[in-house]
Amino acid sequence: MGPRYDPEMSGTLNADGIEQAARRLEPVVRRTALEENQRLSELLGSRILLKREDSQVCRSYKVRGAFNLVSSLTDEEQRRGVVCASAGNHGQGVAFACRRLGIRGRVFVPSNTPRQKRERIAAFGGDPGNVTLFGQSAGATLIGSILATPEAAGLFHRAIVQSGNGLGAFSPEQAARVTRAAATALGVEPTVTAFAAVPDDRLLALLPHLTGLDLRTATRTDPLLGLSPYGLVLDRQPAESVAAGAGTDVALLIGTTTEEANLYLAPQGDLTASTTGDVHALAARIHSDPAALVAEYRAKYPRAHAGRLRSALLGDALFRTGNRRLAEAHASHRAAPTHTYAFAWRSPALDGQLGAAHTTELPFVFDRLDLPALHGPHGLLGPTPPPARLAARMHGAWVSFAHTGDPGWASSETHRFAGDEGRGAGRCAVVGG
Length: 433
Hints:
10% strand; Rossmann fold; disordered C terminus
């Protein structure tokens, strides 16, 4: 939405600002009652009063922040429209504010948002016939799985898969291996009932100890390469289901960054400290013939040092190969457009080592380059000003796709976001590989 007053970031919250917010909210929010809760009072041995914000028009207090923010936008920001991501309650507040103020808005919600919340958002002026699912990283992999799910047909009309993996699902066999390992570590039977009886703190304490399990089987590699044993479980990979015809009537915007795996190597110094042995060890997790795989990548990147080879192998295995397979499967049916992109702007963070790593595109997609926490030598965007024009272009493309199905480039091209838009370097031909 562009620059705006943000009390948490600016540190300028004061009585004047609170009074301004109260004046904006007075016509739209209710003065809700305090009501004693007998059960909590008895449980805690004290008189517990609950403020009944569930009686607001949006069933929660979230309408306060949403309406105050949207109503305080400049005329230019309101003209551009509003986009938000929400689990449901805040989205209702944004939808209500947009309807009340006559502003075009777009609300993205997770695929598991309760139907009643989605219906409430639609009731405030949304279009249930124009639904876009949007996810990044693990969320993008989940969006790919929903695209491949026959039961989801007709429930949404566009999908944005941002740095996901169309080959990122664990098999039931792999999931069972994780379940057995967790049960053994906890000393319980591998059943839902037994796990339900384990206290939350014990489950949380166990999670790091399951990382690194060997989940390779006769038919599948580990889609997360030992980084985590937790994820999507399917009999068939999403890219395979889409190749067979699932989800092909949904318009798709899909892509990755160009140096995804730098995020997992650069902060720890592994991008420069990696050895040939590290490269071969990673290749063994990915391929049945690791020597051949390493040779292939050395031929592809003849000048790359061990760290760069490791990053390329890891980035392809975690994101780019599965992402490409899903895009190609979807495009092969020619039923709905497939728009692909590559985010190539290199962050100068960590002395330039971070580059176009996983997640670096997020501040550009949401047009929030103004957040102070993103800047500095160790911030995601680095110590020098990032290109605002790139953020405006990328944010606009995502909003346009959600609104019309067209991000601004042909489905026969892959758009390259690199910070040099407008100078003839924004697009490249789609190639296999």
